[in-house]
């Protein structure tokens, strides 16, 4: 029987998500009775309460729209992998990804957190910070970081569309 009964899969809907989910399913086969928590963190559109700058518009509807869209995507992900609804919980929270993933793992007594890496490489990780690195340092349980397929193949990852290529 697997010692991983409660598995939190941090889902960001990137191309590493299917690999992370497959790894999580391998840790908790159906016959072992494990429970999978698909968790997505929406970045907050509403500034923190301690900000003294007034907002010209109310961003709560934007944040709610992002949350609703993420719930639909998580549900579709669970259906596309034919996951048993009795073994899966889908959750969307708002906040800073690393903090919220750790908080969720603590609250649900997770045995392991599974997430995919993005394959940005050492320089980009240093410049951008890494959610995975923060989770590894702060999580109350084991953390499995599934390497991006380009890291497994040895080919360099293409630069993300939103970031300029580094020299």
CA distance, first residue to last residue: 49 Å
Strand content: 15-25%
Round the mean pLDDT to the nearest integer and report it.
Answer: 80
The number of helical segments is: 6
Helix share of residues? 25-40%
Quaternary organization: single chain
CATH superfamily label: HUPs
Q: By helix and strand content, what is the structural category?
A: alpha/beta
- Largest sheet descriptor: 5 strands, parallel
Q: Write the CATH architecture name.
A: 3-Layer(aba) Sandwich
Give a quick precis of the structure.
This protein is of the alpha/beta class and 167 residues long.
Notes on the protein architecture:
- The chain is of the alpha/beta class.
- The chain has one domain (6-44, 59-151): HUPs (Rossmann fold, 3-Layer(aba) Sandwich), CATH 3.40.50.
- It is 38% helix and 18% strand.
- The chain contains 6 helices and 5 strands; from the N terminus they run βαβαβαβααβα.
- The chain has a 5-stranded parallel sheet with strand order 3-2-1-4-5, sandwiched between helices.
- α1 (17-27) links the parallel β1 and β2 (35-42).
- The longest helix has 21 residues, at 60-80.
- It is globular and about 55 Å long.
- The protein starts with 5 loop residues before the first strand and ends in a 14-residue tail after the last helix.
- 28% of the residues are buried.
- Mean pLDDT is 80; it is low at 160-167.
């Amino acid at each position: 029987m697997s010692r991983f009964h409660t598995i939190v899969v941090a889902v960001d809907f990137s191309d590493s998500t299917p690999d992370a989910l497959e790894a999580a399913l391998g840790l908790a086969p159906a016959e072992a009775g494990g429970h999978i928590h698909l968790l997505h963190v929406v970045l907050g559109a509403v500034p923190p309460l301690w900000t003294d700058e007034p907002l010209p518009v109310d961003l709560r509807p934007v944040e709610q729209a992002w949350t609703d869209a993420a719930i639909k995507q998580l549900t579709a992900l669970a259906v596309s992998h034919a996951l048993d609804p009795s073994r899966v919980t889908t959750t969307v929270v708002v906040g800073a990804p690393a903090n919220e993933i750790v908080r969720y793992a603590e609250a649900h007594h997770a045995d392991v957190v599974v997430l995919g890496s993005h394959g940005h490489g050492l320089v980009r990780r240093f410049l951008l910070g890494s959610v995975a690195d923060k989770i590894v340092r702060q999580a109350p349980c084991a953390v499995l970081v599934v390497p991006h397929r380009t890291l497994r193949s040895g080919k360099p990852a293409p630069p993300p569309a939103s970031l300029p290529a580094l020299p």
